[in-house]
User: Fold these one by one.
Assistant:
Number 1:
Amino acid sequence: MNSALNNDISKVLLSGEEIEKRVKEIAAEITRDYSGESVLMVGILRGAVVFFSELVKRVDLDVRFDFMVVSSYGAGTDSSGELRIIKDLSQPIENMNVVIVEDIIDTGYTLKNLKRMLETRNPKSLKIAALLDKPSRRKVEIEGDYVGFKVPNEFVVGYGLDYNEKYRNLPDICILKPGVYS
Ligand code: IMP
Ligand code: MG
């Protein structure tokens, strides 16, 4: 819990404990799937930071880190969703096993475009790990290879996810009180 932000929360959707249990399972899956291989884990800033940190320390492989900042013009609109790269990877990924680590798949524009763009760099493999999936909001076809939880069509914060850059440090995934948005 967080007493500074407590008053803004209407409901805890997923507790930190539940999330931790699921993150351990995903880490075990990744460890199994890439047995004997090295993996570049790419965290998408800033929303994936908490999930990324909890995940990587439990992946029992030769792991390297990189980070990207991206935004999708299409997110929240009906446009085709062009990808804007604000911070690119700091290394080539040719012949590497790459796992993109993202907070949530919502419309799908961001990950669909990011995946298409990174494929052109010829990685050995390219997969997506997303903590949350909101399938009811999807506008383009894209699926996570590792997904923590499916969530209903509600705006969620905490565990890295924000509303106007706030609430990222909440230890649980929460739904805010309606008054907070207005
Ligand atoms: P997309 O719509 O799949 O392209 O998702 C783009 C981004 O929107 C995600 O990476 C999140 O940062 C943000 N987002 C989507 N749904 C939520 C939510 O419920 N809470 C907080 N951020 C969200
Ligand atoms: Mg994000």
Note: The chain has a mean pLDDT of 94.
Number 2:
Amino acid sequence: MSENASIKLNDRNLEFPVIVGSEGEKAIDLRTLRSDSGGCITFDEGYGNTGSCVSNVTFIDGDAGILRYRGYPIEQLAQHSSFVETAYLVIHGELPTVEQYAAFSARLREQAGIHERMLHLFEGYPRDAHPMAILSAMVNSLACYDPHLATNDHNRDLENFEEASAIALSKVRTIAAVAYRMSRGLPVNYSNKDLKYCENFLHMMFSDPFSPYTASPEVARAMNLILLLHADHEQNCSTSTVRMVASSGANLFASTSAGISALWGPLHGGANVAVIGMLRSIHEQGDDGSRFIEAAKSGKARLMGFGHRVYKNFDPRAKIIAQGCEELLDSLGLTDPLLDIARRLAEAALDDPYFLERKLYPNVDFYSGIMMRAIGIPLNMFTVMFAIGRMPGWIANWHEVAADQNSRIYRPRQIYQGPVKREYVSIKERT
Ligand code: ACO
């Protein structure tokens, strides 16, 4: 039986339907609130209680620590799948058959290179330019090299979706590798079509003339795991940004480029960089973590890599990546003092009423940086890795907006609290 919700506004009773998701989650459908109430809107700064769309891509139950892509539990995908297979699932909605997987991989391989003229764009950046700025600019620029795929007419862009999405997913890692090589003054490595997605990326990052880099199976597996765990995460800051930009009719490259910019900030994808900065400074100060925890509790510091808007018991990705991190370091015979500090911080915080009361637990970023350090990824590239991993989710969400014939431009409202109407005063008369 369908449910209704009612709102009493002064002496009027307003009725609204309740929408139920496939996992039983509920939303009061307030789309007619403004017209029914004579101008009243909902106010939910930070959108903590607002469903901005209906989506079929990812399900999260933050209280139960559940994350599923297209219905498949993240734990099963992490154990059995690869990044490319998971990307196919996220984008297309089903796990690929053998033929579909082969065709998808072939498209990604074909699209790995970037236009020679585009390489010149990188040369204009200063050597210390942030790779996230370069990545966002270059992904947007991809539209210029294939304008027939980026017409800003969703129906036309959807006809070429397979090609455009393969370009975005494949070239994002090539752009990342070129940005890294150029920042170090190193020659650019062309893609090797014989290699798989992650191995090819690591080759483009780390091969040198006369000294090809071959990723060990353990490193390739770790790279797959990092990217796969980031593949989508429903309506987070960057994905909502992608949908917002897409809702104006913008093409896939413009929309995902905006997602990259949104991801950059330290409260979102930039947290993986901030975690390492925090662990390093704790290490350098000879703190065992307890002083930092006290600073976090008094509001003087923030325990980066802790807390999540949605997960309130644990982040399932953090559990998987913590284990992956231990396994990678063991297999490489490496130790990392930052991992010891991270372990101690997590243990201390998980025993402390401040963190327990606020339901603050390690998130995926708490351990991913330690894994990336072990692979040799430099610190300023950590958020770039997150962006490569998140590309399938952004693509899938762009597709949902573009394919929805009833989609409207996203346009929230506001409550204005600025000055009321006043008269213009000429500059000479102003005091
Ligand atoms: N360290 C210390 N205290 C914290 C932390 C933290 N990491 N996170 C939240 N708190 C405290 C707040 O000070 C606040 O305390 P109060 O109630 O006494 O005022 C309470 O917990 C609630 O915090 P909010 O900031 O309101 O929580 P919100 O849901 O808005 O923020 C966020 C979530 C941004 C992830 C936050 O926990 C944070 O800044 N974490 C560190 C950054 C980080 O790791 N970001 C990555 C997120 S995961 C991702 O993007 C992949």
Note: Residues 88 and 260 are 20 Å apart (CA to CA).
Number 3:
Amino acid sequence: MIKALRGMKDTLSPLSQKYNFFIKNTTDIVKKYGYNFIETPLLEETALFKRSVGESSDIVGKEMYQFTDKGGNDVCLRPEGTAGVVRSFVENKLDRQQGQKYKFFYYGAMFRYERPQKGRLRQFHQFGVESFGESLVYEDVSIIQMAKEILDFFGINYHLKINSLGCDKCMPSYKDDLKTKLNSIDGLCEDCKRRRETNPVRVFDCKNENCQNLIHKLPRIKDSLCESCQNDFETLTSMLNDLNIEYEIDSNLVRGLDYYNKTAFEFVSSDLGAQNAVAGGGRYDRLVEFLDGKSTPAIGFAIGIERILDMIELPKTKRVGYYFGAMEDEAIEELYKQASYFRKKEKVTLSYDKKSLKAHLKGADKANSRYCVIIGENELKERKLWIKDLELKEEKLIDFFVQ
Ligand code: HAM
């Protein structure tokens, strides 16, 4: 038997119903904030992710589904959505539209060759948003508020962590200093030794307890911010306070992708296992320029759909539509005709099998239909439909609709 690849899953009902429920309602929320749908290819040039997500990240360093296509191009299945959206933004020259703001949302499959475990897949789905052209910190507040609104809508239990990762003014000298301090520490893990060279702040993200003990006393980014970053962070926290949005300032939060600056945030949930991040995002004001566009501030986040689906409960739906069943073989063609007529306007579940009334009523219940419509021997003779309202528990005979 051929099975799905490790870390890749089918989405069958009822999970697929949850997926649709999540997409529909999240789309409604982000549209209220002015976001429009964008779809970018699943496959992109590998260089796109190397330049955006960054060589120091685990994603680019270890987890890419990278291969050479038949035309000899070095390509990669997208490990995340932001890079493709930025590529599209630049390629479509939206960076050239003076003063314009663009807001996009997307959802779909992402691929990371990670070690699969609960909450961690190799093919997973994200719902993401990206906002371009707004440098003011109010947009950071708005985007966090929007993420919170989504999680609240689905009744998710979460905890918000925020941090500032500084900007081009305050970061370079901080990073140089950090690198020097890291160089004088022995015993860092191999990953941290690599991070020390490529993006030293990523050491704060290390899950290795020994590394955490070694770097415990090192200065954090948050304490070296320039005046502008400091002011923005203060406005952000004071506005979150005013909006009653609870948060924790986590000076170890650096995010696993290299493109971030200033605001970074993550929503984690204690209802999940070790992989507890439901959503993550932040500002990436330099990325458009890195990808050869005109400098444009930007911010976004993505929700891990599989992780959130685990915590969503579908609301109890009311019975809808009609279930059609026959109790005689000769009635099936007539049943089909009558059902087709109904289907023009109503949801119809049609059983082709001759069954007892009891079995059909059971089928109607399983299909969550409001009405069970039966043609038996007598009904066929008299050209009538027996119909039962499964909500009101009332039954009657009506004439065939199509003669
Ligand atoms: P990320 O933190 O790498 O950010 O991923 C966002 C979310 O995707 C995570 O919080 C998690 O819920 C989910 N996720 C990540 N990896 C896996 C996996 N292997 N299996 C299941 N779920 C996973 C980004 O991808 C950024 N592009 C977010 C962003 C948008 N930043 C700015 N704009």
Note: The chain has a mean pLDDT of 95.
Number 4:
Amino acid sequence: MAKVKRIGVLTSGGDAPGMNAAIRAVTRTAVYNHLEVIGICQGYQGMIDANFKPLLSQSVSDIIQRGGTILKTARCEEFRTQEGRLKAYNNLKEAQIDGVVVIGGDGSFTGARLFNEEFDIPFVGIPGTIDNDIYGTDYTIGYDTALNTVVEAVDKIRDTASAHNRMFFVEVMGAEAGFIALYSGIATGAEAIIIPEIKEEARSIKSLIKAGNIRKKSSNIIIVAEGDKGGGAFAIAEQVKDDFKEFDVRVSVLGHLQRGGSPSAIDRVNASRLGHAAVEALLDDQKSVMVGIMNGEITLVPFRRAVKLHKDVNHNLVELARILSV
Ligand code: F6P
């Protein structure tokens, strides 16, 4: 018989489209299992400030299609400290919350792991970040929507680039990971893709673009992941532009528009599955684990592994992008 009777749910770190679908799934699965649900507002900060509100089935009506998060989110410095986590624990105890679902990225799971080493209230994580950079899951909530947003934007940039014979450096999100850049680059036929996982010298970028230009392309799109060590799209454009005098060079930084918008069908379905699985995990007395999706199946991954191990991009796809772009 599971000990958990009242669970908390929060969203933490950068928001991602589909977080609301996950909150809905957590709430409704809990209600189905006769558990009470408390929404913890503004991530871990809300845990420290006891910013709690009860969630009922109807509290999560009409949100599955909405971007952002109804619980708000934050990056919380105080939760990194032992004092902050102790305050959070006391508030959870006071509110009789005996299990917590954390929807967020690896920073959020680092906090959750530390908390579970110190205190007896189990935390279960759901991967929610547009970056898709969490080890132990093929998929993170928001990635699919963000990718489609980027593809739509780059297609539009391609129209104007071709019309003007221009070379565009398009910077996309991915603080430490190139998933959005690599997949959007393949999907839009980018001439080059620059990601932190592959050390790319300015020389090899130039040769990639030159190879394509032998057949007189009317535009060039170079996708740059913001986390690339080369210094972002402006810096890279500066390094290569003198070699391509025939092109007018422009830089476009897509920025936070990648984080908003109505979640895709994939994000809604996967967030629903993960929200359900997280509550099931708490009912099964799991703690300090993340629920993920690998090869289409739900998996459980210890926070320790999810946080410590690095998820790499598929290097065959890097090669594919090179072959197809010329
Ligand atoms: O972690 C998701 C993410 O969107 C990163 O890709 C990006 O670097 C970061 O968040 C931006 O964070 P903020 O909104 O705090 O500037």
Note: The radius of gyration is 22 Å.
